[in-house]
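input
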Amino acid sequence: SRGCLLLLDRRADAKADERPPYRMFFSGFDQHPGDAFAERLYSHGIIAYALYERRPILIRDLRYDPRYTHLDSNPAIPTQGAALAVPLRLHDDMIGALVFFRDEVDSISDDHVRLIEMLSQGIAGALRGATQVDGLQNTIANANYRRMAAAATEQIQRDLLDMTVHDLRAPISVIQNSLTAAERLIENGSSESAAEILHSAGHSVRQLSRMVKSLLDLGRLENGRAIINRQPIQLHQMLSEAVGLVRPLTQAADQTLVLDLNTLLPTIEGDPDMIIRVIVNLIENATKYSPRGGIVTLAARAQTDFIVISVIDQGPGIPP
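output
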């Protein structure tokens, strides 16, 4: 399965802004399909129909349905199989769309449609207010330090937007892998196992929600207040939660994710959401560069004055 997430950016409607009125995130493709494919999906393809008709659009055979966009010169885009586009909505507002592709013709059932509709509702709720990229970018634009020079502020904004795009990829990949696994289980009649997989997808939806909350907190910088939410942290609980968020990724890569914790880990103070984001990114990179069947280990050890948290993989490493 492959997919993409489109988030509408209404601020880009301004004539002075030359960017497209959306941001597109692709997942599961061997290579990036390109901006032309994204534009066709949005302007007169399956996403356009889903947003205009405000309902899921199912294409059973990509080869013959005029609602699908064909770019014969681009080998990265699907040319056969089935596709489903589900609009993301908050109340009466369309805020984006979720699209999934299957390689087999007529391979998306009514159960799949209901499953993805349920997931889209969770994503829309998690991204409320800031799901529209105009909300994200306006928040970033307003988060400027009064005591910093204009050039430094612009650099912070660029770095933050790049970080946000990178961080969104991990939970989106988890959601996609969870849906793929749940689809197979439903097809085999394993409803209880499918529910467990969807629980992992729900974890990732909550992770998206935390990311959005972190972005909205940037507005507090204007008043000179810190955005770090310091609180007591039970390390065993926090690290177990991080493992739960990324386990679908390691399972999809046929890898073993090991949690190796010292039993004497103390309670610490910090921002658990920010720490989990860092750990999830490290495990995601370890999974990406480790071979299939490999082992990824998340370990934590208490030292005299600090805690050492390590992510260990079997990848090639970085040359000295």
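quick obs: Residues 200 and 244 are 7 Å apart (CA to CA).
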